[in-house]
Amino acid sequence: MSTGNDMQARRRARLRFALRRKASGRPRLSVFRSGKHIYAQVIDDGAGRTLAAASSLDRALRESLRTGADKDAAAAVGKLVAERALAAGVSAVVFDRGAYLYHGRVKALAEAAREGGLSF
């Protein structure tokens, strides 16, 4: 019987495989959420480096947020990562939700990133 971690790793690998096929050279907007915070990175897989990153731990956001684990924090992180990606010259990405469902905080981050100017 598979454990929860095994199943999560399989979902993540399955999604990354599909993203690699349809990315066509675009960077990947990767999301990680923990129980207390949410993190987002724009990653260029070809070069193997991070182009832009934001999290609910950033000093500017930490002071204005009540907690790092709600939809408001996710939306703020989404807007911030979109600003930083546009400043780095990235306007089109492919969204990597990891093993998380497109719901709640992950969805709020994605919609805020779209509003911020990223297209995916």
Write out key terms for the chains shown.
single chain, 120 residues, alpha+beta, Nucleotidyltransferase, domain 5, 4-stranded mixed sheet, 4 strands, globular
What would you say this structure looks like, in words?
The chain has 120 residues and is of the alpha+beta class. It has one domain (4-115): Nucleotidyltransferase, domain 5. Helices cover 45% and strands 19% of the residues. It has a 4-stranded mixed sheet. Helix 3 packs parallel to helix 4 (105-115). The longest helix has 20 residues, at 4-23. The protein starts with a helix and ends in a 5-residue tail after the last helix. The relative contact order is 0.19. The model has no long low-confidence stretch (mean pLDDT 93).
Named CATH topology? Nucleotidyltransferase, domain 5
Structural class, judged by helices and strands? alpha+beta
Give the name of the CATH architecture: 2-Layer Sandwich
How far is the N terminus from the C terminus? 36 Å
Please mark out the parts with pLDDT under 50 across 5 or more consecutive residues, or reply none: none
How much helix is in the residues? Answer: 40-55%
Q: If strands are numbered along the chain, what order do they take across the biggest sheet?
A: 3-2-1-4
Biggest sheet, in brief? 4 strands, mixed
Broad shape: globular
Count up the helices: 4
Secondary structure blueprint with pairings:
Blueprint lengths: L3 H20 L4 E6 L4 E7 L4 E7 L3 H6 L6 H17 L6 E3 L8 H11 L5
Parallel strand pairs: 1-4
Antiparallel strand pairs: 1-2, 2-3
Helix pairs in contact: 3-4
